[in-house]
Amino acid sequence: MTYPSLNVEFHSMMMMRPITLQNVAVIGAGAAGLVAARELQREGHKVVVFEREDRIGGTWVYNSTTESDPIGIDPFRTVIQSSLYASLRTNLSRDCMGFRDYPFVASKEANRDPRRFPGHREVLEYLNDFASEFGLSELVRFGTEVRNVCLEGGKWKVRSRKGGDQLDEIYDAVVVCNGHFTEPRIAEIPGIETWPGRQIHSHNYRDPEPFQGQVVILIGSAASAVDISRDIAGVAKQVHIASRSVTDGTIGKLPGYNNMWLHSMIESVDRNGTVVFQDRSAVRADVILHCTGYMYHFPFLDTNGIVTVDDNSVRPLYKHIFPPPLAPQLSFVGLPWKSKWIAGVLSGRIALPSSGEMMADVEAFYRTLDVSGIPKRYTHNLAASQFEYYDWLAAECGYPAAEKWRNQMYSAATKNRMARPETYRDEWDDQHLVSQANEDFIKYSSSNTVQKEMDSSSLNNQSSSSTPTTQEL
Ligand SMILES: Cc1cc2nc3c(=O)[nH]c(=O)nc-3n(C[C@H](O)[C@H](O)[C@H](O)COP(=O)(O)OP(=O)(O)OC[C@H]3O[C@@H](n4cnc5c(N)ncnc54)[C@H](O)[C@@H]3O)c2cc1C
Question: Which of 110, 198, 203, 218 has the CA that lies 20 to 30 A from 316?
């Protein structure tokens, strides 16, 4: 895909700066690693992607097996990468989720899921399509786990293991894409050591069956908590949701359910099985289910203490990507634009500020967080500023800002999810934005297949009402 109006500018940028092609190791072949591999490859770098599983897709490869430690604190447990539950449908619409120049359009192929908020298998199919379109699987060493990454003579020594074989290799640069939804974060609960019930983290939740007839306390209020509480309410005796963000007015029985209640956070638990909430209500429960998120975890990375993770803040990172003292030879990826920027910076086509300037920028950013009273653990939570951040990255790469519908669609979806937690995936009011997205997708589509799918998708949309249902799509 090309942006014709920018090619001249790009070409002159490339003529002005000498290009250096590098040997780059990418760790992980999930969505982030695949995008990184594609961008690095198209910049001309030599890329090896290390993937410990035997297929691409990372978290989107559903695994019915769960970890031996249901709350994931045993460091010696066998790690399962995916946190998906069987019923999971995306919480972002496919139009918003897709990569900008490889839209996630509905496919007419058999066994595909054309819904706007599809089930998890459809996301994996999309990533498979993306990988085959750009020949990315050939870059991946499957079944190969990175065990250690450390500096040696100004380069990176990457130690990997495949089966019983260990290999040490030297790379110019390392891009870390190992995912950040695998290492559970657990709520601290006074008295939990002697509480007799069962605990589990949502990372190890797959289906509601084990909660049949149980009294379940579910901690959290983000997307997984909303889904899983509804999943479980169908079979459990009672579901009590403990939420940090609850307001007094919303505490109590949840409308539409005869067995689900909303509470403030847990204050303590007792050896007799009782769970006491801060609102002074108390329940005798069988299970505590932590839907409390994840921690950044880079067990293989040795940077001599330069990069640290403190209260889930990875520091210091310039623009959430490069640690200044190690830039650009070490980077962390989670978003497409990051990869394009990294690829251009590594080749020398795009310049970074000096290490000192980057450090000053990072420190100023951390001061802003402190002054605003934002805890460290929200350092990488871009929330409202995420589109501004994407536009900044795009501009650095010489590309235009994102289309307006993306931001508007994201806001509309967020509001819709709050207003209709049960039905937001099948009822919406922003069909006009879907039409705008489809017009843009046609511009980005390079293959006839995608073009054809776009045509039929927009025909379907034209015939649907302003609040289409899944069936209509
Ligand atoms: C329950 C849930 C629901 C979600 N829903 C949505 C949604 O609706 N929309 C959305 O946009 N996003 C959603 N997300 C976010 C999702 O995680 C991202 O969309 C994206 O898939 C993350 O990709 P990643 O490549 O960063 O990580 P992952 O997909 O986790 O991939 C990391 C890869 O690195 C490999 N790896 C790790 N360590 C090593 C090592 N040492 N050596 C070799 N390989 C290694 C892993 O095997 C894995 O393949 C959801 C996440 C979760 C957990």
Answer: 203
